Amino acid sequence: MVEGTAAEPPILVSACLLGVACNHLGRASASDAVIELSRTRRVVPVCPETMGGLPTPRPAAEIQADGRVTTSDGVDVTDRYERGARATVELALAVGAREAVLKERSPSCGCHQVYNGSFSRTRMPGEGVTARALRQAGVEVRSEEDVSDI
Ligand code: SF4
């Protein structure tokens, strides 16, 4: 049973963490902790990359040193990522969400870490395009690895 009330602000959640097969491989990244959270709190699933108009599956993309987002073939997909970020912020404002739980290391959703642009699975401190936009809009952003803080 969902215990959250209609008056309680919902939490935006990366849809892949809830089991939606929307990641770039066409798979989910289900998190038991996030699914458990959805049983006690009202959540609103989002997938910024699909909201930005990208297909599923889609080529992997990483944030480059200049801030652009490109695929491993060098295709610049920054506009799609920014479009998805704007749509996610608009949704957060529309539903009154003040918190988000987003998939760590994604070029959209990463909160503390992202891959470094070399497509070698090398991590670096940083945040995804949507995580940054939400944070700048005043939404408190956490990753699935921080759910115990809620
Ligand atoms: S954009 Fe975010 S929600 Fe969508 S698949 Fe990637 S990590 Fe998951």
Q: How is this structure best summarized?
A:
The protein has helices at 32-40, 48-51, 78-95, 129-136, and strands at residues 11-14, 43-46, 61-63, 69-71, 99-102, 113-115, 123-125, 140-143.
Explained architecture:
The protein has 150 residues and is an alpha/beta fold. The protein has one domain. The chain is built from four helices and eight strands; from the N terminus they run βαβαββαβββαβ.
Q: What composes the largest sheet?
A: 4 strands, parallel
Helix content: 25-40%
Q: Work out the radius of gyration.
A: 15 Å
The backbone outline, from C-alpha atoms, is: globular
Beginning-to-end CA distance, first to last residue: 19 Å
> What number is the mean pLDDT?
95
Number of strands: 8
* Count of spatially separate domains: 1
Low-pLDDT segments: none
Order of helices and strands: EHEHEEHEEEHE
Alpha-beta content class: alpha/beta
Bound heterogens, unique = iron/sulfur cluster
* Count, helices: 4
Going across the major beta sheet, what is the strand order? 2-1-5-8
Strand content: 15-25%
